[in-house]
Amino acid sequence: MFLIPDIVVRFYHRMASPPHYYAFTQKIMPWLVVIFVLLTAAGLYGGLYLAPADYQQGDSYRIIYIHVPSAWMSLFIYMVMAITGAIGLVWRIKLAEVISISSAPIGASFTFIALVTGSLWGKPMWGTWWVWDARLTSELILLFLYLGVIGLYGAIDDKKIASKSVAILAIVGVVNIPIIHYSVEWWNTLHQGPTVTKMDKPSIHVSMLIPLLLMALSFKFYYLIALIQRSRVELLNRERHSQWVKTMLSEQQQ
Amino acid sequence: MSFSEFLAMGGYGFYVWTSYGLTLVVLLFNIIIPVVQRKQFFRQSLRQKRK
Amino acid sequence: MKPARKQRLILIGLMVVGVSVATGFALKSFNDNLMYFFSTTDVIEGKAPKDSLFRLGGMVIKGSVERPNDGMMVRFKLTDFSKDVTVEYTGILPDLFREGQGIVANGKLNPQGVFIAEEVLAKHDENYMPPEVKQSLKNQSEKGKGQ
Hints:
The complex is a heterotrimer of chains A (254), B (51) and C (147). Chain A is mostly helical. Chain A has one domain (17-253). Helix content of chain A is 77%, strand content 0%. Chain A starts with 5 loop residues before the first helix and ends with a helix. With 51 residues, chain B is mainly alpha-helical. In chain B, 16% of the residues are buried. With 147 residues, chain C is α/β, with parallel strands linked by helices. Helix content of chain C is 35%, strand content 27%. In chain C, strands 2-3-4-6-5 form a 5-stranded mixed β-barrel. The mean pLDDT of chain C is 84. Chains in contact: A-B, A-C. Chain A binds chain B through residues 48-49, 53, 58-60, 62-63, 66-67, 70, 105-106, 109, 112-113, 116-117, 120-121, 123-124, 222, 225-226, 229-230, 232-233, 236-237, 240, 245, 249, 252-253, and chain B through 6, 9-12, 15-16, 18-20, 22-23, 26-27, 29-31, 33-35, 37-38, 41-42, 45-46, 49.
């Protein structure tokens, strides 16, 4: 891979070693938490208090500040899970497998949040909790894909084989991602079209957009924090017989 | 704007606050689970070592 | 890259392409079933089912909403900016139902070609703005028309 600068390659190799990853993530964790708290506080203050009510939907639209970032995260985390799963399959990097499987419960949580908050928004605005239109149905399939990944991984005892099976399932499921994104354009749906990613003209007022972007960023940091927490435990369990875990355990004992 | 007006959310308080509350619970759950699991791992490993 | 890795990478690539193509064909053949509602033009052109329930989507024409018997029954016209269909509905309308708003109604056509709705859902648009901004946009477009 001649295109990648040397320093990136070195960083990559260091990070791919479990003990380094374990120590490094512990060091950066407080910073991540601080950034997350600041972003969330600013986003919520802007979204719930500063931003004006919508001309049509009144205050009910404020659900957007968790609904839309969660929906974005549900797609983003799936892509991370599938790509790290593929890296694990091709290059047999243990850490990639760990990142992949640790992402699944977080992605499932965001998908669940997107579905439930959407339902809580749909009831007063559309007049129904749920409809089987293309957007809602494909997002529900995403939740089942996540649950499938978690279930399959748990069902296979040999974690090497489990990682491979799960990666293949995740990669196959990638086909659902563009379907979710374009569902509102390809078919008639009750769900409205995209707002922020529409390029021609912004269809959300700037006072409402800024908190939305802050919340989107805050959820990214939440994902990082939750991912680090989960992956560290997964790593400990998988590497329990390796020297670095044993050394750490004996240090803990003293 | 008074605090009770803020809570009422123009009549949509139930929907808005249920959404935010549920999100908080799910996100907290995701942070707490790994902490519990890590404690469990250390407890178990140390017990096995002593045997 | 080592041959074994290359082989695995190609295998994954083929898998993704294969699944995508298969899904693409499946979606293409089920395209009509994936449409959540029929448009008013579909109804006028006879593409919508005659005797069974189906969903009709469109925009409520401004000034078309009336309550003929002063009761719960509402009558309004839906349009997709090319053909119109009259809808009758008895029941509670969602908060967002208003003239100029997109809606989706579930119901059946009667012999006169009037759509008898059993359920009305509001389809809100993707625009979010404060009421004052909406008002000023409206004033601007009216000024534009006046000139």
